[in-house]
Protein 1
Amino acid sequence: MAEETRSLKQLPAPKAGFLLGHSTHFSKDPLKFLCDCERSYSSIVPLRLGLSQTCFLTDPSFIAEVLRERTVFVKNTPGWQAIRTLVGVGLLGSDGDFWTRQRKLTQPTFHQRRIVAFGELMVKATEKMLVDWKENAVRDIHRDMMDLTLDIVMQALLNVNIEGKEAKAIARALDLSMKWFSQQQKRGFLLPINIPLPLTRRYFASVREMDGFIFKLIQQRRVSSEDTGDLLSMLLHVKDETDGSQMSDRQLRDELATLMLAGHETTANALTWTWMLLAQNPQVEAKLHQELDVVLQGRLPSAADLPHLTFAQNILKESMRLYPPIVLMARSAIQDYVLMGCRIPKKCIVLMSPWVMHRSDRYFEDPLSFQPERWENDMEKRLPKCTYFPFGEGPRICIGKSFAQMESILILATIAQRYRLRLETEHEIVPFPSITLRPRDGLQMHLLRRQTAFA
Ligand code: HEM
């Protein structure tokens, strides 16, 4: 006999408010609320956030299924609609056939072979930043990592310099978008974008200014046909193999805005949390220094060193386990779908959280402690799929994964060769989940010059 299908309503759920459902608890402290759900309820937790019927998944195989079924579970959620105001219908926020075409066109651009060419640029940009670092100074390391990764992504994408007015306009739009999203989030629900609040007006004005610069850059490149070796040059030349068509200016603009947003904050935050964790765990830091000294012998790192910097790789894996830059992923069901015997109704929003899965004691021993060694002996391969998924999973897995891994290791190695960073604050560092997970009040750190045999 066929097994009976349960409805979401039959599953145990946290107590909900009459009007706002679970929104009040969720918006107060989303990470704690979701961790409590994982500990106290079954693998599918029904929730109501505002008017939206929602469910939260805590079983890795359920998460893997939803991420795999990209034609049923799409990105048409209020959060994604807000992100589209910045990135349009680029890879990150599109669905269906349009996404398939864009992914096919963009994928070769991110091939490992091509990405390696950006290694030198990444190290040079880090060295340029270090010119302003002085021994014993106190700096907001979060700000520094944001500026550095923006510099790198701008050069890799557009071959423009961070000091130029184009880059400044783009940085302003990205920054205002973060503020705008945070403001929306604090409210606990998203207001329609056409309500002319002051920040909303400033945000849209800055997006228009950013667009002006991007369209101008695209035009200049089309006219000159110059290959400047950046990602824009590659995207300008890719052709759909079925009909030979190329990307329009609008599509190029949307992809560039997407790559700037997706490729900058995420890596900056991964590095910021890594510096905090290294300062809190000096024995791990000492082991990193030892590896850097043995492998690099005092010279600058390059892409060719990556396979030998295995402890550095494990540090970043472990830091993204505890502080995944994307803490929550959302999809909306376009039709009823039966997930492991439970009916997920059409329009239901499905939530999945790397933060929650990465901190579950069902999969990780002593989950809150920072132990890069746990990743030795191919531990990642032995975990069930979607237990550890900082870059997502399935067909929509992060296209910039190799770029981000190379960038974060090269930056980590270049800085850690010369400096030890110590926490300046006695206060608790509060993780704040905006589009990405950042420290709410920045990260003030004290710079100590490292004494090495090579200095
Ligand atoms: C540590 C750094 C990074 C992390 C943790 C990260 C994480 C993610 C995650 C979790 C997704 C999937 C989102 C979802 O399915 O809802 C994603 C998608 C994406 N990421 Fe990243 N990312 C990082 C760096 C980058 C970089 C450097 C780039 C580009 C330069 C990039 C470009 C993208 C794009 C375009 C997508 C959308 C892919 C698609 O839907 O086909 N990311 N990223």
Note: The pocket of protoporphyrin IX containing FE is lined by residues 91-92, 103, 153, 258-259, 262-263, 266-267, 270, 325-326, 329, 390-392, 396, 398-400, 403-404 (CB under 6 Å).
Protein 2
Amino acid sequence: MKIAVIGVGNMGGAIMKGLAHGKQDELIAFNPENPRVDKLAHELNAQRIVKADELLAAQPDLLIFTTPAPITTKVAAQFAQLQNALVLSAAAGVSIQELKAAMPTASVSRMIPNIPVAVNAGTIGLTMDPNLDEDRQKQLRDAIATLGDIIDVKEEQLDIVGTVGGCGPAFVDVMMDALSDGAVMEGLDRQTAYQIVASMVKGSGALAYATKEAPAILRDQVASPGGTTIRGIAALEKAGFRSALIEAIKASCGE
Ligand SMILES: NC(=O)C1=CN([C@@H]2O[C@H](COP(=O)(O)OP(=O)(O)OC[C@H]3O[C@@H](n4cnc5c(N)ncnc54)[C@H](O)[C@@H]3O)[C@@H](O)[C@H]2O)C=CC1
Ligand SMILES: O=C(O)[C@@H]1CCC=N1
């Protein structure tokens, strides 16, 4: 499949890396002049395109939009004449209706991916164009399957899915940074702290995912009676840790 990623910044670059690891797709990086994008395209053996007419001539099968949300419909309008291309937009908050207005004949689906797609461990909320026939739905799903877990949601659920799944990695990064600081304060060297924290978060996620247990059940398995963990949990409660996370989700949702 010929896949063009439109806007190769943090998310577009992560998607290109994930796609390049996974399959033998023909990849195109479409972005204004930028040496960083040239370097990435070279590393991933992807075609580099800067001009809209060149992308039109390349006739991609799938366009993935990872341009800044406020300009995505304007960018999309440049490709309105592409026939038969599938369109998948990752632009947060830009509706299928808005995208369809820019590309009236295109089949438009939306997703909210997250940065771990770069290592094929992403979480992707997907709203598929309901008018796509089964074969084309399968084509689209197969094209992104290598990026991580796909969770089908209604379009009205994409914002909250995008907040937890899409913004969430940054919240976890803040937590990992703080845990590492704590370890360094207790005398551990920083690189070892980062390694332990990343491995611990990976394992905690894997366990929760595999068992489908409620996080509170898993927490209770760690907190031995009279032990060290419950003292740490009490300190977290005192500092308002859970409340801070709930507030973070609300703030990212625009409340
Ligand atoms: N960063 C993330 O974790 C996530 C981002 N998204 C969505 O992905 C999109 C991009 O976000 P980021 O990668 O974080 O931003 P970014 O600023 O890192 O990347 C945007 C890229 O678009 C390029 N660009 C600007 N104007 C362009 C144009 N006219 N044509 C083609 N490319 C153009 C920029 O040069 C840049 O490389 C946004 O719509 C955002 O909502 C969605 C989920 C998660
Ligand atoms: O910060 C943002 O707006 C994007 C959407 C989800 C994650 N990053």
Note: The domain at 162-252 is CATH 1.10.3730.10 (ProC C-terminal domain-like fold).
